[in-house]
Design goal:
With 300 residues, the protein is an alpha/beta fold. It has 2 domains: 10-99 and 263-299, no CATH class; 103-260, no CATH class. Helices cover 49% and strands 17% of the residues. It has helices spanning 2-57, 59-67, 70-79, 113-122, 128-135, 141-144, 154-157, 169-183, 193-196, 214-221, 225-233, 241-244, 248-254, and strands spanning 83-87, 90-98, 103-104, 197-198, 207-208, 259-260, 265-274, 278-287, 292-299. The strands form 3 sheets. It has a 5-stranded antiparallel β-sheet, with helices on one face. A two-stranded parallel sheet has the order 3-4. β1 (83-87) and β2 form a beta hairpin. α10 (214-221) packs across α11. The longest helix is centred in the first third of the chain and has 56 residues, at 2-57. The relative contact order is 0.14.
């Protein structure tokens, strides 16, 4: 009996020690991963500072700010879409595109929501989807008169979800996942969100019509894909409304959005090629005239 009790106690101690060692190893692994992430973030921040300095001193970009010409911006983007660099032993790739080629989803308001509804209807998506989107834009509610009562269970299922505006593609993905589960709406997967929307709080953000993608034209003018593609293919040389050749109805629809023919803002992607960690990405917008970056996103 005593031998059995002693054996049982020994086994219990062995189990406790094993669990303690396992927990210690797990904590060590987590700490190592945290250190690696902090190191990667620090290195990425230093590289970002170098990239910003390059942008601020680049003669080509300084010229864009001085010339204030849509043609110069178009030429720059056509010839500078991809630039490989070596900064401090780190291999990086920088790419540029217009930061105003898409619709900021937070510009949705009472004046233009009919165009959003028409666009989604083409993809067989019910009007309730737009209602769910507006629930995540409470910052617009007082101004636009949106009902402050939540009609869906989005925030019951996601109580921590940010609800003042849609801040990122990841934020929209959470909303879309909820909508597809709650309403059984698989057609949402057919929407080309990557070509359609930009994010962050900028309810007055304009669309540069010289870089607007075909999906953007389709929504803001409420036109066919063929008509939208034609407008997108002829972009790069638009200077005025007359250059677009719009019908009366298309002009009325266009007035529901803020647009321009020259918006000196770049969307900059910095890809850091790491041997062990793969590729880390940094995205941000760069104001050519003010020489500053903002809306930074790190993917480490």
């Amino acid at each position: 009996m005593r031998f059995g009790i002693a054996l049982l106690i020994t086994l219990v101690f062995v189990m406790i020690i094993s669990v303690s060692v396992g927990y210690g190893l797990l904590q060590f692994k987590n700490a190592s991963m945290l250190i690696d992430e902090e190191k990667a973030l620090y290195q990425s921040t230093m590289i970002l500072e170098d990239v910003l300095e390059i942008l601020q001193s680049s003669p080509e970009i300084v010229h864009l700010a001085d010339s204030n010409a849509s043609e110069d911006l178009y030429i720059f983007l056509q010839n500078s879409t991809y630039i490989p660099l070596d900064l401090g032993g780190e291999k990086i790739e920088i790419s540029f595109e217009s930061a105003r080629s898409k619709i900021n989803i937070n510009t949705l308001n009472r004046g233009n929501e009919d165009l959003f509804r028409n666009y989604f209807r083409r993809y067989m998506i019910a009007e309730s989807y737009l209602d769910v989107l507006k629930e995540c834009m409470s910052i617009n509610q007082a101004k636009e008169g949106y009902n402050s009562q939540y009609l869906s269970a989005l925030f019951d299922n996601n109580p921590e979800l940010f609800r003042e505006y849609i801040a990122s593609r990841e934020h929209l993905d959470i909303i879309n996942d909820f909508y597809m589960r709650e309403y059984g709406e698989e057609n949402l997967k057919n929407i080309p969100f990557e070509n359609l929307f930009s994010y962050a709080f900028a309810p007055a953000q304009e669309i540069d019509l010289n870089y607007a993608k075909a999906d953007v034209w389709e929504l803001i003018l409420d036109v066919s894909k063929e008509r939208a593609l034609m407008l997108a293919q002829q972009a790069g040389g638009y200077h005025s409304l007359e250059d677009l050749g719009l019908s009366k109805r298309e002009k009325e629809n266009l007035k529901k959005f803020r647009t321009s023919f020259f918006s000196p803002y770049l969307l900059v992607k910095v890809a850091i090629l790491r041997n062990k960690r793969g590729v880390s990405n940094i995205y941000f917008e760069y104001d050519i005239k003010q020489k500053r970056g903002y809306n930074f996103v790190f993917e480490l």
